[in-house]
Design goal:
It is an enzyme of class 3 (hydrolase). The protein is α+β, with helices and mostly antiparallel strands and 464 residues long. Helix content is 15%, strand content 27%. It has helices spanning 4-19, 170-181, 207-220, 247-252, 291-299, 331-343, and strands at residues 26-27, 57-63, 71-77, 85-90, 98-101, 103-105, 108-109, 112-113, 116-122, 130-135, 142-147, 158-163, 188-191, 225-227, 268-272, 275-279, 310-314, 348-351, 357-360, 363-364, 378-379, 385-389, 410-414, 418-424, 429-436, 446-451. The model is unreliable at 1-23 (pLDDT under 50). Bound molecules: fe (ii) ion.
């Protein structure tokens, strides 16, 4: 007679290996010296206003239409509206100067009144072309530049940066500086939410939205930042009479949401090079029958993987998170949207919110059923990899506390500040690297070759 005490462990090991549970993740052994995250003082050089009375400041750009041959230029003039005009020309045709007019807006928040916030969309640009643009008039003109993405196509390489939860501390400055110095030369930033952290200051001091705008300009004026909204963008504060959610963010950051038939600037999609990027809002309704739910349901079948093989989702609150901070906060959206992510073979979901770095295995929990007692994430080659990039360096500090033991779905986790690079090579391969601030900006603390879920859907843990 067989010894049942021998068979049972073998059977258990077999079942666990089927479920992928024996493939344990890695918690980094890197120990970052703990220090307080401190906001840079208001008179720091990175916050200084540009010279000249009423000069354009807080300049930032984002993609201006669905396929990337338009750019939304945004800036602030502090004292007077002046002009909403943008002069621009391509490097190839410097004598052919053009201009476009935009709109101006402003808002009040408690005892703060914003400057004049301008948004101007430059349309019908050539693809893959460097443009210069000029803001302001007279002596107070400022010149910037950007390069449009290549025309959408399946094998078009493109290098995306990924950052989130930056804020405006000394660590934030290190993150942004390292990002800009990364020799991979990222061309477009995917920003996963929580920009200024103005709401961490008394009465949501909106002066900190202005200092943030000036701080980020050195990158945001020169390359498109594609932003998902985070909880620090909500600025809902009924105790001081501020009951309009997202008021500062929506006045300052525009998106081309109408081009993807979205009813809200908080969620939308764009196509860029070989990627289809879906931006979602963790803090807008997403339950069944809500506008965001209906929009995403209609959007996913429209993704044309023949033209854009890479399907990327940006959403602030992570759907998988093994830290003790914000643990399980992403569950409602996971239950709502994960089956669609798997059905439509999303390649990667980038999130923020948890102030640390984490990369998941390709797993799903779409069998979720609280009554069956068997619900846990399983290996699923159709599922996305979930990457948490809430490690931008904000005032709230790092999330050091992790759930123990590390769950099998978590491939790598580390409580350090840093930035990521998602480098698309062609329709089959992309290379992701994560760069912690404590290293030189070129050092990869974690990395992974991504195999496209449509064109090369093999397990990345093997050599394929
Ligand atoms: Fe957050």
């Amino acid at each position: 007679m067989a010894d049942s005490s021998f068979i049972c462990p073998l059977l258990l090991a077999f079942l666990l290996s089927i479920a992928g549970l024996t493939h344990g993740g890695k918690t980094s052994s890197f120990v970052r010296k703990q220090r307080k995250s401190v906001c840079m003082p208001i008179n720091s050089d990175v916050f200084q206003e540009p010279p000249g009375f009423n000069s354009p400041q807080q300049v930032h750009i984002t993609q201006g239409n669905y396929d990337g041959n338009a750019v939304i230029v945004s800036w602030v003039t502090p004292k007077y509206p002046r002009s909403t005009r943008v002069h621009y020309w391509s490097e190839k045709n410097p004598s052919q100067k053009k201009h476009s007019h935009g709109i101006s807006t402003s808002y009040k928040y408690y005892n703060y009144t914003s400057g004049f916030i301008h948004h101007c969309t430059l349309k019908n640009l050539a693809f893959d072309t460097k443009y210069y643009y000029v803001l302001g008039v007279g002596h107070f003109r400022r010149t910037f530049s950007f390069t449009t993405p290549p025309k959408v196509g399946p094998d078009v390489p493109h290098t995306f940066g990924v950052m989130g939860d930056i804020g405006q501390t000394f660590d934030s400055n290190t993150t942004l500086t390292h990002y800009m110095a990364n020799p991979k030369n990222p061309q477009t930033l995917l920003f996963v939410g929580d920009l200024s952290y103005a709401d961490d200051h008394p009465f949501h001091d909106n002066v900190r939205w202005d200092t943030w705008g000036r701080f980020a300009e050195k990158s945001a004026a020169y390359q498109a930042w594609i932003c998902a909204p985070g909880n620090h963008e909500i600025d809902y504060a009924p105790e001081i009479g501020e009951t309009t959610a997202f008021k500062p963010f929506l006045h300052r950051y525009y998106s081309p949401y109408k081009d993807s038939q979205s009813p809200s600037p908080l969620w939308y999609s764009v196509r860029r090079a070989s990627a289809h990027i879906i931006v979602l809002s963790s803090y807008s309704a997403f339950a069944k029958y809500s506008p965001q739910h209906d929009w995403l349901k209609g959007e996913l079948p429209k993704v044309n993987r023949t033209e854009t093989p890479w399907l990327i989702v940006l959403v602030h609150s992570p759907l998988y998170n093994s830290y003790n901070y914000h643990y399980m906060e992403g569950e409602p959206m996971r239950v709502a949207f994960e089956p669609w992510f798997v059905e439509h073979k999303v390649d990667v979901v980038f999130s923020g919110h948890v102030h640390a770095y984490e990369r998941s295995e390709r797993i799903s929990n779409i069998d979720y059923n609280i009554t069956d007692g068997l619900s846990f994430p399983k290996r699923n080659p159709d599922a996305p990899v979930y990457i948490t990039m809430g490690d931008g360096g904000n005032i709230e500090g790092l999330a050091y506390s992790m759930t123990q033991p590390q769950p099998a779905y978590s491939a790598y986790r580390e409580a350090s500040f840093g930035h990521g690079i998602f480098d698309i090579k062609n329709r089959t391969h992309a290379y992701f690297s994560w760069h912690r601030n404590d290293d030189g900006y070129a050092v990869e603390a974690d990395s992974m070759w991504f195999y496209n879920r449509i064109y090369y859907p093999v397990d990345e843990n093997t050599d394929g």
